[in-house]
Amino acid sequence: MRVHEAGELEQLAGLQESDNQQQGQQQQQQQQQRFGKGTKSSIKRSKARLAVGISEMQRLQQVMQHPMYKADPIQAITNHLNATMPAAPQPPKQRQGQQGAKKKKKSKGGGGGVADMQS
Q1: Could you identify which of 32, 81, 99, 111 might form a hypothetical disulfide with 37, taking C-beta atoms 3.0 to 4.6 angstroms apart as the criterion?
Q2: Distance between CA atoms of 16 and 14, rounded to whole angstroms?
Q3: Using CA atoms, how far apart are residues 78 and 86, in angstroms rounded to an integer?
Q4: How far is CA 36 from each of CA 22, 29, 43, 46, 47, rounded to the nearest angstrom?
């Protein structure tokens, strides 16, 4: 009877492995569908990314060959940023007499009570 049970256990283990493989394949298919692998749009995006990467590498090579960059890279980058970036706006200035002071409200009458009404 033990031989029969061992054979059943092996069959169950084999079924479990094949079930795990099927689940793994299903998960891969779901991920591919979710992320668009194999579709025309993903191919277009990857080609566009590749084209941008190539143009950026060429631009970097041009920068590195520039004589000003070769002489002083930090100064070359600083000059480029100063020439291309707009100046930062200046914060509004506070008036000298009103720094942190609050104005007190002035009342129009004396104290405002019954005495003011009788006069």
Answers
A1: 32
A2: 5
A3: 13
A4: 21, 10, 9, 11, 14
> Rounded to an integer, what distance in angstroms lies between the CA atom of residue 74 and that of residue 80?
10
52: tokens are 């941008």
The pLDDT confidence band at residue 76, using thresholds 50, 70 and 90, is very high
Of 68 and 37, more confident: 68
Whether pTM exceeds 0.85:
no
- How far is the C-alpha of 111 from the C-alpha of 31, rounded, in Å? 78
Residue 32 Cα distances to 19, 21, 36, 52, 71, angstroms: 20, 17, 6, 24, 49
Q: What is the rounded average pLDDT of the residues 20-25?
A: 70
Comparing CA positions, the residue from 80, 44, 82 lying closest to residue 59 is 80
Give Cα 72 to chain centroid, integer Å. 32
